[in-house]
Design a protein that fits this description.
heterodimer, A: alpha+beta, Arc Repressor Mutant, subunit A, Beta-Lactamase, two-stranded antiparallel sheet, 7 strands, B: mainly alpha, Amino acid/polyamine transporter I, 18 helices, about 0% strand
C-alpha cells in the first residue's frame, strides 16, 4: 500500500480503467489472439484479476473470444473508445508540450513508461521521430530507452515484451551512472547518424518515474541543447500530476 | 497516438480470418433484452402452478422439514445457476447446456446432455399442456370433463403455442411475462392472505428434530427441484439477446431469485395452512377460491408449455446446424425465427397427449413416463454441466479454485438427488423409469450412430454464436 521504492514501482495500476486499457493494448499487439494467461503475464497482474477484467471487457463486447476460445481479439466496440483514448492522451498535457516546442524550437516528444516498454503519448508532428520502430524495439539506442532502463532495472525480456532487443548488463550500468551525474540521459547518432537527443524523466507524486519529455536536435546543435534542460525539467514537473491521474 | 490499441482504432479494419457467417446465420440476433430472458426462464419454472399443487404433497412427504427442503433446493439451484453463468459469460448458443457440456466434456457427453435436456423440455411441455387444458376443461364443464373436450383444448392451445413460437421470440417472451406475472401476483396475494389468516405463525416452518430423516430430506429436495427445472432455459436465448454475456448470466440468476422468493413465501403460506388445519390441504380449500386457483394453475402451466417448447426449439435448432438433426430444424423464417422446428416440436408436444386420450388413456398414463423422464433429464443435464465447467475453464486456461468449488458443490448435491430419485422411482414406478431410460438411450444411440457415420457432424458438435469478421477489428499491421 505504501507504494514506495521498487515494490511500489512494480505495482500495476489495478484500478479499473488503467488495467482495462493495458489489457486492450496487449490484445491489440497480439494479432493472433492473446490468451488470458498470456495477457496476465504481459501486464504483470494476478491471473484472477485479469480474468475478471477480461470477462467484463468481453461482457461489454470490447473484447471478443476466438471461436475456439484460444484467445481474445479486439471487438468492434473498441471503436467507441476512440474519443477516450484521444482525450486520455491529448488535451491534459498538450499545452505544456506545445509551449516547450515553441520555446525551444526543437523536436519535443512526450513518452509514458509502460511496464513492458514505451508508449508514445505525443509525437512532434512538425518534426517526427526519425526511427520510431528502432526506438520502440531497442532501449539501448535512445535517450528515452536509457531512462526506461534506469527506471526498470530488474525488467528484461520477456517480461518487457515490447522490446525486441535486450540491453547488455554492462551498458545498463554505464547508463545508470551517467544518469546519476546529469539527472537526464543523452543519445548521439545511435538512431539516426545526424541526430541526437536528451530525455528528462517525469516523476509522479510518489517519486516514481512514469514517463519522460525528450528533445531531439541535429548533432551540430546538440552541445548547446543542454541550455534547454531547465525548461524540460519545469515541463516534467508540470506534467507529474497528469502521470499520477492517468495511470501511465 | 501510436499505441497498438490507438493504431487499431484509427485504422478500424475488420478482420478477415474468422469467416463471414456465424453457425447460427439467419437467426435474428441480438434483439431481445434481459427481461425476455427472465420471462423465458421464470415461465419455464412455472412457480405459480407448481406452488399451488405442490406444498401439500411436500408436507406429507417431509413433515416439518418441507420448508428446509425448499431452502436447500434454492441453494442447489443457485449453485447450478452460477455454473451456467460461467458458461453463459463465455458462450452464446441456442443449445445452452448441451453446447456447454459439449465444450467441456466432448461431443458424446454433450450428446447425452442435449438428449436429456431435450427429453426434459418436451416431457414437461406435454405434462403442462395436458394438465392446463384438463383443468380448464373441468372448469368449463363444471365437473370431470369429457375426454373430447380436453382433446379439443389441448389441440387449440397447441395451435396457439405453435403460432406464438413460430411468430417470434419477443412475441412469446412478452406473452410469457404477462401470463406468469398475473399468476405469480395472484398466488402471492393469496399466500399473504392465508398467512394473515393463520396470524403469521412461522413457528410451523422451523424443523422439528423428531421429523428428521436424511432420506426424507433428499427426497423432499428432489421433489422441490421439480419446481425449479426450466430456470436454465433462458440461456438458449443467448444469440438472440443483446449483450448476451452480460444479459444471460444476470437473467438466469434473477429468475432463480424471483422463483425462489415466490416459492419460499408461497410454501410458508401453504405449510402454515396445512399445519393449522390438517383437513384442508391447500390454499384452494381455505380461501374457497378453487375455481380461480384452477385458472391460475392452468395459465401458469400453459405458459410453461410455451416456454419449454420455445427452449426445445432452440436446442433442436443448434443440433440441426451441427448436422445432428435434419436441416429442416435449422431453417429460419423471414423474421429470423426457427419456425419450422417450433411447429414440429409443438406438434409432437400436442400429439402425444391427444393420442393417449384418444385411445382411451388418461393424463396419469402419460405422466407415468413423462414425470421420471423430465426429472431425470433435467437433473442429469445439470449434473453434466457442473462436471463440464472446470474442464472447460481448464481447457481455455481460465480455471480458478473458486470455479472448482462452485461447480463441485452442486454436482455432489445433484448426484445425491439423482441417486435417491432413481432409487425411489425404481421402487414406486419401475415401468415409467424403464420407458424414460429407453427414450434417452434411443436418442443418444441415434445421435452416436450419426456422429460415427459422419465425422464432420461429430467435429461440429458444440457450435456457438462465435464472432465473425465484422465483429472484430484487426490489430496494427505487423512488421
Amino acid at each position: 500500500m505504501s507504494g514506495t521504492g521498487l515494490a511500489g514501482d512494480s505495482r500495476l495500476p489495478e484500478k479499473g480503467l488503467g488495467l482495462a486499457l493495458e489489457i486492450l493494448e496487449q490484445v491489440a499487439r497480439d494479432d493472433r489472439g492473446a490468451s488470458a494467461a498470456e495477457i496476465a503475464r504481459a501486464v504483470g497482474a494476478s491471473r484472477a484479476t485479469v480474468y475478471r477484467v477480461v470477462n467484463s471487457l468481453v461482457r461489454d463486447e470490447y473484447l471478443v473470444r476466438r471461436p475456439d476460445f484460444s484467445g481474445f481479439l479486439l471487438g468492434t466496440r473498441v471503436l467507441e473508445l476512440a474519443a477516450i483514448v484521444g482525450a486520455r492522451t491529448r488535451p491534459t498535457h498538450a499545452a505544456v508540450v506545445d509551449r516547450l516546442r515553441s520555446e525551444t524550437g526543437e523536436a519535443v516528444h512526450l513518452f509514458a513508461f509502460h511496464r513492458s516498454g514505451l508508449l508514445v503519448l505525443d509525437e512532434d508532428t512538425a518534426q517526427p521521430l526519425s526511427d520510431p520502430d528502432a526506438l520502440l524495439a531497442d532501449p539501448a539506442r535512445s535517450a528515452i530507452g536509457h531512462l526506461w532502463l534506469v527506471a526498470h532495472p530488474d525488467r528484461r525480456m520477456p517480461q518487457a515484451p515490447s522490446w525486441r532487443v535486450d540491453a547488455a548488463a554492462g551498458d545498463v550500468h554505464a547508463i545508470r551512472e551517467a544518469y546519476a551525474v546529469r539527472g537526464y540521459t543523452e543519445q548521439v547518432a545511435l538512431l539516426s547518424s545526424d541526430r541526437g537527443c536528451l530525455a528528462v524523466p517525469i516523476h509522479d507524486d510518489a517519486a516514481r518515474p512514469v514517463g519522460a519529455v525528450t528533445l531531439s536536435t541535429s548533432i551540430s546543435r546538440l552541445s548547446v541543447a543542454a541550455r534547454h534542460v531547465g525548461a524540460l525539467r519545469d515541463a516534467a514537473r508540470a506534467l507529474a500530476p497528469i502521470g499520477a491521474l492517468s495511470d501511465w | 497516438m501510436s499505441t497498438a490499441l490507438a493504431d487499431a482504432i484509427e485504422r478500424a479494419r475488420p478482420r478477415n480470418d474468422l469467416g463471414s457467417r456465424s453457425p447460427f446465420a439467419g437467426l435474428r440476433r441480438r434483439h431481445a433484452h434481459t427481461i425476455d430472458v427472465v420471462a423465458q426462464s421464470v415461465a419455464a419454472t412455472a412457480p405459480a402452478g407448481v406452488l399451488l399443487i405442490h406444498p401439500a404433497a411436500a408436507y406429507a412427504r417431509s413433515g416439518s422439514f418441507a420448508f428446509l427442503d425448499i431452502a436447500i433446493t434454492i441453494t442447489l439451484v443457485v449453485g447450478v445457476g452460477l455454473v451456467i453463468g460461467m458458461f453463459a459469460r463465455r458462450i452464446a448458443s441456442t443449445g445452452s447446456l448441451y453446447t456447454f457440456a459439449a465444450r467441456g466434456l466432448g461431443s458424446h457427453v454433450g450428446l447425452v446432455t442435449g438428449a436429456a435436456l431435450g427429453i426434459g423440455y418436451l416431457a414437461v411441455a406435454m405434462n403442462t399442456l395436458a394438465s392446463g387444458s384438463q383443468r380448464l376443461a373441468d372448469l368449463l364443464s363444471g365437473g370431470a370433463a369429457p375426454p373430447w373436450l380436453v382433446v379439443v383444448l389441448i389441440t387449440a392451445f397447441g395451435g396457439i403455442i405453435a403460432l406464438v413460437v413460430a411468430r417470434g421470440l419477443r412475441m412469446s417472451t412478452r406473452m410469457l411475462l404477462v401470463l406468469e406475472s398475473i399468476a405469480v401476483l395472484t398466488v402471492l396475494v393469496l399466500s399473504i392472505a392465508a398467512l394473515s389468516l393463520t396470524q403469521w405463525d412461522l413457528g410451523l416452518l422451523v424443523p422439528r428434530p423428531s421429523d428428521f430423516s436424511l432420506e426424507a430430506i433428499i427426497t423432499g429436495v428432489a421433489f422441490a427441484l421439480i419446481g425449479f427445472v426450466g430456470f436454465e432455459s433462458g440461456a438458449a436465448l443467448g444469440p438472440e439477446t443483446r449483450r448476451p454475456f452480460a444479459a444471460v448470466p444476470r437473467a438466469v440468476m434473477v429468475s432463480v431469485g424471483a422463483t425462489g422468493l415466490v416459492m419460499l413465501v408461497g410454501t410458508a403460506a401453504q405449510l402454515s395452512i396445512v399445519a393449522e388445519r390438517p383437513g384442508a390441504a391447500s390454499l384452494a380449500t381455505v380461501t374457497g377460491l378453487s375455481g380461480l386457483i384452477d385458472v391460475i394453475v392452468a395459465i401458469s402451466f400453459l405458459a410453461c408449455a410455451l416456454a419449454m417448447t420455445n427452449a426445445a426449439t432452440r436446442l433442436g435448432f443448434a443440433m440441426s446446424r451441427e448436422g445432428l438433426l435434419p436441416a429442416t430444424f435449422g431453417r429460419v423464417s423471414r423474421r429470423g425465427v426457427p419456425a419450422v422446428a417450433g411447429v414440429l416440436f409443438t406438434a409432437a408436444v400436442t400429439a402425444v397427449p391427444v393420442v393417449i386420450l384418444a385411445i382411451g388413456g388418461t393424463r396419469q398414463d402419460m405422466r407415468i413416463v413423462t414425470s421420471p423422464a423430465s426429472i431425470i433429464g433435467f437433473v442429469l443435464a445439470y449434473a453434466l454441466v457442473c462436471a463440464a465447467a472446470p474442464v472447460f475453464l481448464g481447457r481455455i486456461g481460465e480455471l480458478t479454485v473458486r470455479a472448482v468449488a462452485v461447480s463441485a458443490l452442486p454436482l455432489v448435491g445433484l448426484l445425491c438427488v439423482l441417486g435417491f430419485y432413481l432409487a425411489a422411482t425404481l421402487r414406486d414406478n419401475p415401468g415409467g423409469l424403464l420407458w424414460a431410460a429407453v427414450f434417452l438411450a434411443l436418442v443418444v444411440g441415434a445421435g452416436s450412430l450419426r456422429m460415427a457415420r459422419h465425422p464432420r457432424v461429430a467435429a461440429r458438435i458444440g457450435v456457438h454464436d462465435w464472432p465473425v469478421d465484422s465483429d472484430c477489428i484487426e490489430g496494427p499491421a505487423r512488421t
